[in-house]
Amino acid sequence: MRESLIEILGLKDVLRSGWVRNKVNNPESVAAHSWGMAILALKLTPKNLDLTKVLSLCLVHDIPEVRVGDLTPHDDCSTKAEDELNAMKELAPQWLALFEEYELGESGEAKFVKQLDKLDMGLQAMIYESKQGLDLSEFKQSALSKISNSELSSLII
Fold first, then answer.
1. Do residues 65 and 117 touch, judged by C-beta distance below 8 A?
2. d(CA 131, CA 87)
3. 79-109 pLDDT tens trace
4. For 7-19, what is each residue's pLDDT tens digit?
5. Global pTM?
6. Is 82 exposed, middle or buried (0-12, 13-18, 19+ CB in 10 A)?
7. What does the alpha-carbon distance between residue 8 and residue 144 come to, in Å, rounded to a whole number?
8. 3-state secondary structure 34-80
């Protein structure tokens, strides 16, 4: 158990590859992204959703990236789903149902967390743009194209 926990905590060292590709100085880690989503969840989760489930989905959704890496649409993602599922089965089988719920994106909580995932990316792009003078509009546009909740999308516009 200790070995898998130590490996999962390695997400603190896995840099978000989209930011690296766009030459962001000191880019966030995958773990920092998951934390950002959890903070957004605490502030924004509607009362009709289960906050505990939303927070759990935020924290679990990227665990396989400690083995698979942070793949983006610019990468070869042909085996991503299978590779991530296998990594999750080995690393944290007790959270497999949460991971699968997020991946399926059918529950109200999973749909909301998928939007938080994009909202965090869009807000982080705004932070990097303001601090580093970069043009990261592709990330904001990508986020906006995936967020259907107008309250959430208004935070990026």
1. no
2. 35
3. 888 999 999 999 999 999 999 999 999 999 9
4. 999 999 999 999 9
5. 0.95
6. exposed
7. 30
8. HHHHHHHHHHHCCCCCCHHHHHHHHHHCCCCHHHHCCCCCCCCCCCH
